[in-house]
Amino acid sequence: MFILQAEQVDFCTLNSRIGNQIVQIPGLEYQRKLYIKGETYEQQDRSTAIQKARQKVLELKGQPMILVEEYDTITLWYHDKTVEKVSPLLTLDLQELVAAMRNVGGIHIKERQFHLKSYPQCFVGSEAVDWLVAHLKISRPDAVTVGQRLINENWIHHVLDEQAFQDGYFFYRFRWDER
């Protein structure tokens, strides 16, 4: 059992199977192991939390667990091999993302031309990928995944509705900018 500070762990969302359903629960990752949230104690009850954690280690025959101290609480986390980490790309708030992309400092939305044809109010896929990489601190393939999610959830579309989202010179438009 370890006692760690919140800055030493990565908080995340986990998928857990409960009966026939998969539910998302709060979790954390530490040293490539996933933990589910257990009991939380006030910081003034730290010694009680440590005592309960020791007791749980004995009851659960050495199952890995950690105590994580935050500002005013200390929480017991249990290692669980059955849960899976949810990709942060799947939990992005797309409405906030689209608002940021369309705002000052976002991607360049303007009239563009290709093969003597004009396409109003659009942006280039590779420029959107550049912006997503810079602002979300993700890889280019992950940025393409986010772009495709924006298409799948009807926030953007290819100007001719002929392309999936690509990191290239392809034009896309926000649904809000349709005329």
Précis, in short:
Helix content is 27%, strand content 37%. It is built from four helices and eleven strands, in the order ββββαβββαββααββ.
Features:
179 residues; alpha+beta; 7-stranded mixed sheet; 4-stranded antiparallel sheet; 4 helices; elongated
Give your account of this protein's structure:
The protein has 179 residues and is α+β, with helices and mostly antiparallel strands. It is built from four helices and eleven strands. The strands form two sheets. The chain has a seven-stranded mixed beta sheet, covered by helices on one side. The chain has a four-stranded antiparallel beta sheet with strand order 8-9-11-10. Helix 3 (125-136) crosses helix 4. It is elongated, with a radius of gyration of 23 Å. It starts with a strand and ends in a 5-residue tail after the last strand.
Number of alpha- plus pi-helical segments? 4
- Overall 3D form: elongated
Tell me the span between the first and last alpha carbons.
Answer: 60 Å
Uncertain regions spanning at least 5 consecutive residues: none
Radius of gyration: 23 Å
